[in-house]
Amino acid sequence: MTLSLPLDNSYARLPQRFFTPQVPTPVSRPSLIALNEDLARDLGLDPGALASPDGVAALAGNTVPDGARPLAQVYAGHQFGGWVPQLGDGRAVLLGEIAAGDARYDLQLKGSGPTPYSRRGDGRAWLGPVLREYLVSEAMHALGIPTTRALAAVSTGDVVRRERPLPGAVLSRVARSHIRVGTFQYFAARGDAEAVQVLSDHVIARHYPDARDAWDLLDAVIDAQADLVARWMGVGFIHGVMNTDNMSVAGETIDYGPCAFMDAYHPDRVFSSIDQFGRYAYARQPDIAAWNLAQLASSLLPILGEERTAIERATAMIHTFPARFGDRWLAVFRGKLGLTEAEDGDADLIGSLLDRMAGDGADFTLTFRGLFDGTARAQFTAPEAFDQWEEVWNARREREKADDDTQRALMRRSNPAIIPRNHRIEAVIAAALESDFAPFHAMHAALKAPHDAHPDFVAPPEASQVVTATFCGT
Ligand code: AMP
Ligand code: MG
User: Fold this and answer.
1) Residue 411 host element (H or E)
2) By CB count within 10 A, which of 88, 185, 195, 290 is most buried?
């Protein structure tokens, strides 16, 4: 019997030029690797039904669940700053939306076969990027950072050809929506003001019901992105491909390709093997977010009223991003230092610690966590740099009204002990290629409680284990 899912299809009811109806392409031997039972239950789905043969067939794309109207979304985007007039779901289909509470969630299969937007790609994903996205997106969620989620991973029994033949897999991804800055760009670039208006109304109804018009929408997306990127910075996350087609208007982290959590801190750190010029380096992420938001503003211009005044007002709004981001960044890093109040010199205090960490190559996660448990100094090869800073920090803490326990509790919840470190993800993938999924499950379980110092997952890589590049998730 075909799996039945309580799906609504509001995106499928938008005008035809927003998507192409597309069923997934069946695979040879679907087999369940992982099912996120907690998430399934949060969505009101029955984990038992999803794990049954009919459920797995649907999660692999071999059957279309009752209630789904599968489609591939069209969008455009700036990739590494270069304009690409047409992209779209080249290896994914949206099955529909699940209503849970007052929100609705897209259910998308990624790696489900070719679509009209596949260009030269095969529409497939191999096991490595599927497991990486599963682990990293669920870790992100456990860290309290807005993100798409992973509902399930299945192996396909088919071979995917990359540099070498690799086992194929399909990820079931859950998101507030898959609407991107690039979705607006696609219609704006075609002079289709009517579609921009329809999309704007759809996004407002779905994500920002308090917004009265596209101005409010732009304002809300700027806020959401300022908050999101500040939170990324706070956990040392590098997205890796902040193209406009990989920026969600719902403010979630989306499209985990060559992303990484940093080990040794450096503001210029880049992981993506395709980011030759460091466009998406750690410290550049806020500037890139502002640049992407300027593209969103440009795309909304056709519906923002008289052009000249609209350009002025939109430009002024984009220019508020640095201040909004700066406020959020300060809030995030004050928490990491255990500071409950604001003082003028706080940005300098935080910057001074980061500079010293960069100079020494100190581990990002363990240094901040060490502020809580007293091991920060041990993260430095030349600890005097830390000692000098610590004196200033202690003096600053003395001036807080909050007592030591309150400060330390704040530090604990603001500084995770474990993050999905790259070398561990690589080890998980290597084991999975030998059909051993135990390391994947162990890592996934540990990452659910990132503030508990699980002894098996705290350590940074040995010199020989350092991963210097991550590859695009194709
Ligand atoms: P990404 O860099 O993963 O955000 O993808 C950029 C574009 O390439 C999107 O339109 C994807 O759908 C498409 N794409 C990526 N990988 C594949 C693939 N294996 N087959 C078809 N299209 C792909
Ligand atoms: Mg993408």
Assistant:
1) helix 404-414
2) 185
Report the mean per-residue pLDDT for the chain.
97
The pLDDT tens digits of the residues spanning 403-417 come to 999 999 999 999 999
> Which of 118, 133, 163 for mutating ligand 1's site (highest number of atoms within 8 Å of CB)?
118
Q: How far is the CA of 9 from the centre of ligand 2 (A)?
A: 22
**Is 363 annotated as catalytic?**
no
* Pairwise CA distance, residues 225 & 286, whole Å: 9
Q: What is the pLDDT of residues 200-246, one digit of tens each?
A: 999 999 999 999 999 999 999 999 999 999 999 999 999 999 999 99
Rounded CA separation 148/138 (Å): 8
Ligand 1 pocket residues where CB is under 6 Å: 87-91, 117-118, 121-124, 241, 245-246, 255, 257, 472-474
pLDDT (mean) for 177-190:
98
Nearest of 288, 230, 280, 248 to residue 472 by alpha carbon: 280
Band of the pLDDT at 259, cuts 50, 70, 90? very high
Residues near 79 by beta carbon (within 8 Å), at least 6 away in sequence: 241, 243, 245
Task: Give the distance (Å) from ligand 1 centre to CA of residue 92.
Answer: 9
- The helix/strand/coil state of 71 is strand
| Helix 193-207 vs helix 214-234: crossing angle, to nearest 10 | 60
Residue with tokens 């960069």: 358
Gap from CA of 185 to ligand 2 centroid (Å): 14
- Which residue is it, tokens 């998730």? 473
